[in-house]
Amino acid sequence: MTLTERLSSITATATGNHGIKTTVTVDGLLIALDLGTTTYTMSASALAAEITTLTHRAAADALAQGMAILEPHTGTEFPTNEPPEPDYTPPTWSLSP
User: Fold this and answer.
1) Where is this region: Disordered (predicted)?
2) How many other CB atoms are there within 10 angstroms of residue 45's CB atom?
3) d(CA 16, CA 1)
4) Exposed/middle/buried for 8, CB within 10 Å: 0-12, 13-18, 19+?
5) Exposed site from 2, 56, 63, 70, fewest CB < 10 Å?
6) Of 1, 5, 9, 15, residue with least CA distance to 58
7) Which of 86, 40, 80, 76 is nearest to 64 (CA)?
8) Hey, which residues does 22 pair with through a beta bridge?
9) Per-residue tens of pLDDT for the chain, all 97 residues
10) Taking the model in full, what pTM does it have?
11) What is the helix (H) or strand (E) element at residue 22, kind and residue range?
């Protein structure tokens, strides 16, 4: 299986407390949604929030799977989304005559 095929085959599923399930691809595309039966008692905003949360959780899992597949081919670790540590060293100034 090629690297592209391996990445394309990645899916991840997240299940919530209300029985809702979301399944996404490595791109975060929602490909399956199971609303279960408890959604009939949920408000529209609660249902939307639950679907959004579960989709994000599944997308993070799928992305982690994809990064794990790519990491051996990159030679270095993937960067994180964290900003670099600030450098508080004062600049050195010099005035030449």
Assistant:
1) 73-97
2) 8
3) 33
4) middle
5) 2
6) 15
7) 80
8) 14, 33
9) 898 999 999 999 999 988 999 999 999 999 999 998 877 888 989 999 999 999 999 999 999 999 899 888 776 665 656 666 777 776 666 666 6
10) 0.73
11) strand 21-25
> Helical H runs in 2-97?
3-8, 44-74
Place of tokens 């597949």: 69
Residues 6+ apart with CB under 8 A from 22: 13, 14, 30, 32, 33, 34, 51, 54, 55, 57, 58
Go through the domains of the chain in sequence order and give each one's CATH number.
3-74 (3.30.1310)
Contact 60, 14 (CB under 8 A): no
Lookup: tokens for 94: 């010099």
